[in-house]
Amino acid sequence: MKTIPEIYSEIYAEIDLTDRKLGQELLNDARGQLPVDVWDKYLLQHNGQRSEVVGWCLNPDDPEFAPIDPEQAVDQAEPLLAEAFGRLMSDSPIKALDPLSTAMTILGHGSSRCQRGRGLAASMQHQAVRAWVIRKFNPHPKKTGESTVGWARLADKLFIKDGKCPRSILDDDGRPEICGASEHRYDSRCVKALMTAVGNLKSAMKRDGIPI
User: Fold this and answer.
1) Lowest-pLDDT range, 57-66, 155-164, 173-182?
2) Contact 44, 50 (CB under 8 A)
3) Across the chain, how many H-helices and E-strands are there?
4) Residues 40/12, Cβ–Cβ less than 8 Å
5) What is the mean pLDDT of the chain?
6) Rounded Cα–Cα distance for residues 193 and 209 (Å)
7) Residues with Cβ < 8 Å from 74, sequence gap 6 or more?
8) What is the pTM of this model?
9) Could you tell me which residues come within 8 angstroms of residue 141 by beta carbon, excluding any fewer than 6 positions away?
């Protein structure tokens, strides 16, 4: 029987982390599934499946992703895993991706590892992953460790909906208000929050020995 890493390797075989076009594709799909799939494959390549950051791509503010009882998670995931194994043995193994991803998400919700990052607001976990992945695969050609995608542009991509940013922030007096920006400044609170979230993510990755 194939192991979970072997299954993932086959399913994510079409994602080439060395493809020069990947960075732009990630930017174009900043809120879509591609950043999550790239994150999963990156962790897989670096033995990060059991790290504390494995579930950070989940949005804990979404009721669909709320934590569930571990036993209930296993019961819900079992038929999906059986379906995935069946599809993996077919002529189109890529069709195993949907049930397997759903099963792993369910198991993640029931896992003790699916917890909020240290010092990180729960609503920012998944945004940190997306931001890190997009910057990682859009490297600056002349500045080591830097990206061609700036933080303000990332904040616009990840936060702005219907022309405005709906995030709740604190004003100068510490009172909550809606950001409302149609375009983020480099020194805005949303940009600073995103940078802090990614910094926490990178620290967690280092603790787990995952290269950044």
Assistant:
1) 57-66
2) no
3) 8, 2
4) yes
5) 82
6) 24
7) 107, 110
8) 0.74
9) 148
